[in-house]
Design brief:
This protein has 327 residues and is mainly alpha-helical. Helices cover 69% and strands 5% of the residues. The chain has a four-stranded mixed β-sheet with strand order 1-2-4-3, with helices on both faces.
């Protein structure tokens, strides 16, 4: 068991190294990525930003899995067992665990468990807060307003798409009474787009998985993701009518909520940079995203990962061997 725990601690060290490298590379790549995405369709931009935000978690995990893959493939007999031919460095392999659990490795393993627990608690707290908001709205009742939307009595103007798995649209009586029917339909179309896109879930996942990013980078990425989600829903509402009418509605709602306490929801019609949303609506519509591009990129990533497994495995083992000699 000590050897398996030693290998597990070695895997955690490799994961931390991959995480640090990913965070630093993301910080360097972020300015260029932000400029490159500015002209893309908001829906495509939101997808790329979601992937970039969560890359600080999934990319290190992917690299670790690639490092462990040769050992597991050899264990089931799919590839040649390479461990016996490389006795000159540390082994990142659960098929042949050799490293005993030392005190430094035990500290690393304990710290990793603590970080995992803290991160899980933070995500659970955020989720619990949103669930309390939704429960509070449901407890207050509300009258059916339109398909999939309910009106709730409140002197504060707001429109919300709350919920992760089955989002619900809630619009305050103050907003319903202040807007003409045409603008209210635009608000409903915008919120329905949030529901279809599951933006609350998207942003929750991005907020939790982006924790390993550098704080300044994480804050900017999440702000850009929030804006991209709002602009994507503006575009969806604009497909039902006039882009200028949507821009006017954004400004009208912003004026109504300017002096109100902002609601902590993820998917509110008044959320995001109003100036950038209006400029986007007054300009030409960007080209719709093509799902085929995502399939091609995913296939290229899978092929590249398979090719990278063995070189990355040996390079990581040598780096870990050097690190252990220093410790």
């Amino acid at each position: 068991m000590s050897a398996e725990l030693g290998t597990l601690a070695l895997s955690v060290i490799a994961l931390l190294g991959f995480g640090l490298a990913t965070s630093l590379a993301s910080a360097l790549a972020w300015p260029a990525l932000r400029r490159g995405l500015r002209r893309s369709h908001p829906a495509r931009r939101a997808c790329w930003l979601s992937a970039f935000a969560s890359a600080a978690t999934w990319l290190p995990l992917l690299l670790l899995c690639l490092c462990l893959a040769p050992g597991f493939l050899a264990l089931v007999g799919l590839t040649e067992d390479h461990c016996l031919r490389h006795a000159d460095h540390a082994h990142l392999c659960f098929a042949h665990p050799r490293l005993a659990l030392t005190v430094p490795l035990g500290v690393v393993l304990s710290a990793a468990v603590a970080v995992l627990v803290v991160g899980s608690l933070r995500g659970a707290q955020r989720l619990a807060r949103w669930q309390r908001e939704l429960a509070g709205l449901r407890l207050a009742g509300g009258l059916p307003l339109a398909a999939g939307a309910r009106r709730i009595d409140s002197p504060r103007p707001f429109s919300l798409a709350l919920g992760l798995w089955r989002p619900e649209i809630w619009i305050s009586s103050a907003l319903v009474e202040a807007l003409p029917r045409a603008q209210l339909e635009i608000v409903l179309a915008h919120e329905r787009a949030h529901v279809r896109r599951r933006d609350s879930l998207r942003r929750l996942v991005a907020a939790v998985l982006s924790l390993p990013h550098l704080p300044a980078v994480r804050r900017r990425v999440l702000l850009e993701l929030a804006l991209a989600c709002e602009e994507a829903c503006d575009e969806a509402a604009a497909r039902l009518g006039d882009r200028l009418a949507v821009a006017e509605t954004v400004l009208a709602v912003e004026r109504l909520i300017a002096h109100a306490t902002p609601h902590p929801s993820l998917a509110s019609f008044g959320d995001g940079s109003v100036a950038r949303r209006v400029r986007s609506l007054l300009g030409p519509a960007a080209a719709e995203p093509t799902p085929a591009l995502h399939w091609w990129l995913g296939s290229a990533l899978a092929v590249g990962a398979a090719w990278l497994a063995h070189p990355l495995h040996h390079l990581t083992e040598r780096w870990l061997g050097w690190l252990l000699s220093v410790l």
